[in-house]
Design a protein that fits this description.
3-stranded antiparallel beta sheet, 12 strands, single chain, 1 helix, elongated, 5-stranded antiparallel beta sheet, mainly beta
């Protein structure tokens, strides 16, 4: 940053300059909306192949650096919310993917990259997108209502 000051008094001229610097920090913002859809297992086919919820979560990224979004389970197992539910249903019955991808990532307690992107706000290509989620517990766990926390992490590349 340069600031030039000049003043004139009579026939004399004065000039001075000031130099400075500005610090611009890396900044990132992650917005998550949705994510509260509860899938219904209403057919034999659902238990056999799982239930997919398209557009489960809307994600918006604002960043002045290239970014990586990862996800992991808060716990290794789901917590039953109803009496008699299984306590051993693993987080791996869940998988997620960006809606534009064909490759699901199985959820575990280890962070997995689900998308990368370039600097910009949510109007930049790829910085606003949806996630699909698939639930596939099969026939190994008791019926009931279950909960599992997912941790989404936005980081610089």
């Amino acid at each position: 940053m340069t600031l030039i000051l000049s003043a004139t008094a009579g026939a004399q001229s004065f000039q001075a300059s000031v130099s400075g610097s500005a610090t611009v920090y890396a900044i990132q913002s992650l917005t998550l909306t949705g994510g509260s859809i509860i899938p219904n297992f209403t057919s034999f086919e659902h238990y056999l192949n799982g239930v997919e919820v398209k557009g489960y979560l809307n994600i918006g990224v604002k960043s002045n650096k290239a970014w990586t979004l990862s996800v992991k389970a808060q716990n290794a197992h789901f917590s039953p919310m109803s009496a008699g539910g299984s306590t051993n249903m693993p987080s791996s019955v869940l998988s997620v993917k960006p809606s534009t991808s064909s490759d699901y990532k199985t959820i575990s307690t280890t962070s997995q990259t689900i998308k990368t992107g370039n600097k910009g706000d949510t109007n930049a290509s790829g910085n606003a997108f949806q996630l699909d989620i698939r639930y596939n517990p099969g026939f190994s766990y008791k019926g009931g209502i279950y909960t599992l926390g997912l941790i989404y992490t936005l980081s610089q590349q």
